[in-house]
């Protein structure tokens, strides 16, 4: 079965599940400028974040990365993760089961 969505079609703020109950878990994250997600982890997941629009400061463990529209970040979900929107931002996040699962 093929399913096609645009990020704007999805319901839910700041998180919208693109394909509910399907793997890999795929989320659209929408943050207003200055808004952030509290530090959290996703153990057992490898994460890909594609920033569709905007700009983020992405805190991963003790490091902070600048992510701009069009950038793709890949990282281990076992570390503390906290994105903060520098400007209104929309990201597509894929949480794949890690190779250790």
TrEMBL record:
Coiled-coil region(s): none
Species annotation: Haloferax denitrificans ATCC 35960
Region called Disordered, residue ranges: 1-22
UniProt domain Cupin type-2: residue ranges: 29-89
Protein name in the entry: Cupin
Superkingdom of origin organism: Archaea
Signal sequence annotation: none
């Amino acid at each position: 079965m093929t399913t096609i969505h645009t990020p704007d079609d999805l319901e839910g703020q700041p998180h919208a599940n693109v394909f509910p109950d399907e793997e890999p878990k795929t989320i659209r994250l929408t943050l207003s400028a200055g808004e952030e997600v509290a530090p959290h982890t996703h153990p057992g997941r490898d994460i890909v974040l594609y920033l569709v629009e905007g700009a983020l400061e992405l805190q991963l463990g003790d490091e902070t990365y600048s992510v701009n529209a069009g950038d793709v970040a890949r990282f281990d979900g076992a570390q503390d993760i906290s994105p903060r929107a520098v400007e209104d931002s929309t990201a597509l996040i894929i949480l794949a089961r890690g190779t250790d699962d």
